Every structure is written in structure tokens, then in C-alpha cells.
Amino acid sequence: MDLINGLKAVYYTSLLYLRVLFSLMTPGTAIWNLFQNRKGKINLISRDLICDSETLISLPKCGKPLDGFTNALCPFLPTFLLDNDQYWKQRRDVFSIANSIINQRILENSFEFKLESKKGNVLWDIFEIIAKISFQLLFNRIPTEDEFNDIYPGLLDINKIIKRFTSKPDLQARQALYDRTLILIKQNENDFVFHDSKEFYAMNEIHQVSSIAEDFLTTISVQCTDLVCHMLLLYSKYPNDFHDNIENSIHETLRLYPLTDLWTRQPYGKQRGWIASVVQLNRNGWTQPDEFISQRWDTNDHPPLMSWGFDIRRCPAQKLATGISQLVFENILKGGDFWIRPARNFEHERTFPYGCQVWIGYGEIPSEANSWTFEGKFRMQCRRWLCEKVRMIDQNELN
Ligand code: HEM
């Protein structure tokens, strides 16, 4: 890098760090805020910032996963972090066996649940419902009370750490999740998704357990809960869009609220390491980029949706994840005159630093529903600010 470019890199890196440090924005949102519709790459001190999807897609191909610093994926999914080695291949092969069976089950099975009326944070209520469904999809039956009591606290703990509601893992809960998963694998019931799979049982214990507990139970519960919460919040403003075209509305939900904030990759070949904001990739080059307009998906005349990844490592579970999220969302809505009102002081953001603060109910809407506020916002903002910054340092996020 010559002197001028070196100075520019120092300038842009400082600008980015300062913006992230002194605002409540996630780094991905800060990048969009700073660089908006800029095209191509911006040199930072140790990486390139990739500003638009066209530039990202035309980078030399790479089989490596996004690196460990990619936030929100870390620390819950070792699969994401596995290198391009024999284990990754095994896990991907095994994943696709269950993936197609689960897709079938989503279509054929019926799922009984109800999201109870509530004023407050519904994130964990939805999480619990989806955790049960994820079990049901893997084992083709509902979990017994004992099974669920072993599994659910571990899943909850993982999600609370991801969302930074807590900072230390509950090792007892994790152990119970591990042990129960192992028992279920050993039981190998007839309807277990891997019942006939030699490939699954050829993997060693840690990969078997990780495949069930993390690739499926955790990922389904965490990712689909976030997606359903985003959909419900947008539904409160744009109900007709969701009734008219659910597929378009899911695309638009994920465009505005991608479930990951940043993607980062270590250098490979002659390629410098890079960082990209999924928020920016999904808005750069779009008309009225910050608006929810589901009809824009009626044509192909727009950049691609980047929320599912972009290369050989892109999400293998798009159909499964949208299938489950749509199923849960539609099931909630069909509970007779469903209504939802977010708290007046709630801001819909990509992450859920104060949970999903809404008032939901069925039937008549109380008059106070449009003006209620949730408590403790300031405290949650402080915790969120601290956790975001600690995470940046801890995970060397913007390195
Ligand atoms: C609900 C919305 C979801 C979104 C938006 C999403 C998005 C993503 C993204 C961005 C990646 C990384 C792509 C990359 O490295 O380039 C990814 C990878 C992956 N996702 Fe998803 N995902 C979702 C749900 C799920 C679910 C429910 C599962 C499991 C049942 C799943 C399984 C995986 C796996 C196994 C990978 C790793 C692929 C690999 O490295 O080979 N995802 N996903």
C-alpha cells in the first residue's frame, strides 16, 4: 500500500471504529450509515471493506468458512467455523440427509401450539415453541417433559449468550443438553431423522451430538425465532403485505433485518482479508433502501438478497428455515383475530437488545394497546452498549 492509500486506510479505519464506539449501532449498521451506496472496496488497515453485493460475488471463489470473528454466528455454531476439511464435508453431507426429511415433515405434520396473549417480551415464548418444534422435526414426536427439561435450558442458555443477556455459559445446562442428545442418538428410534444413516453413525460422538444439538436444535430455535419476531413486528405495520404475499414479505424482512451483521474472511490466495456489512449489502443499490416494500420482489430487477450467504458456504437450510418460520408465523396469526402492538418506546432493530416488546392478543384490542411502554429500557441500553463493545474487543470484530 502506498503512502496515500495507507493514510486513507488509517482514516477510514478510525472513522469506523469511532462511529461504532460512540453509537448504539451495530458495526454492520454503522458501516451502512457511513458508506451508504459506495461501490467496490474501501481499504481498511488490515482488511478490505466490501461495500456492495456485486463486488462480493465477483471475488475469487473460496471454500473457507467465514472466519471466527463473524459476529452473531459466534459462538453458537462450530459448523460455521469448521475449515474446509473432511469434517465439514461429513457434516454437510449428513446435514443434507436430515434437511430433506425435515422439509417433508414440515409439509406433512401438524404442530399444536398457541402463543398466549401477553404484554411484554415475547421472544422467549416464541423460542420455546420453536425449540419444541425443532425436536418434533428431528424425532417425529413431541418431547417428553424430562427430555424437554434437559434440552431446553441448554438451548436457552446458548441464545441468551448470543443475545448477550448473560455473559457466562451455564455449564450444567449445556451438559444436560449434551447428555440427553447422546441418549436420544443411542436410542435411534425408528423415526429419528438419522435412523438409517450410516454416514451419521460413522462420525465420532462429538460430531454426532454437535450435529443434532447445534446444527439442528439450536440453529432452528435461534434463527427461526429471530425471523418470526422480525416478521411479527413488521406485520404490526404492514399486515396486508403479509396476507397478500408471504414469500415476498419474508424476503423483504430478511433484506431489512438480516440475521447476521458482519461477514469477515481471512486472507486467501492473493485476496486480502475482508469484512462486509450484510445490512449494507442488502441496501446498497436498492431504491428506497430503508423502506419495507414487499412488492419490489415481484420483479427481478434489483440486486440479490444477501441474507443467506453468497458462495459455496451459503446457508444450506433456506427452505427449511423459511418453512418453519412461515409455519409458526401463520399458526400464530390463525389463532382468531390476532393483533399485535409493539411498545411505543420499542425500536425495531436487527438484534433484540431488549427482547421483542409487544402486546399481543386475540379478539378485541384494548384502547391502551397503542400507547403502552415497556420498562427498563435505559438499563437495557446500557447493558447492550457495554456488551457490544466488549464483544468487539473480545472477538476482535473489526480487526
Ligand atoms: C432463519 C434464517 C437463517 C438465515 C438468514 C441463515 C443464514 C446463514 C448464513 C448467512 C450462513 C453463512 C453463509 C456463509 O458462510 O457464507 C449460514 C450458514 C449455515 N446455515 Fe443458515 N441461516 C438460517 C437458518 C438456518 C437453519 C434453521 C439452519 C439449520 C437447520 C441453518 C444451517 C446452516 C448451516 C449448517 C450453515 C453452514 C454452512 C457451511 O459452512 O457449510 N441455517 N446460514
From TrEMBL:
Say yes or no: keyword Chloroplast present: no
Q: Which domain of life is it from?
A: Eukaryota
Write out the entry's keywords from A to Z. Membrane, Transmembrane, Transmembrane helix
Which Gene3D superfamilies has this protein been placed in?
Answer: Cytochrome P450
Query: Where are the coiled-coil regions?
Result: none
Q: Membrane as a keyword?
A: yes
Per its record, what are the GO molecular function terms?
Answer: heme binding; iron ion binding; monooxygenase activity; oxidoreductase activity, acting on paired donors, with incorporation or reduction of molecular oxygen
In its UniProt entry, what is this protein called?
A: Cytochrome P450
Q: Which organism is it from?
A: Rotaria socialis
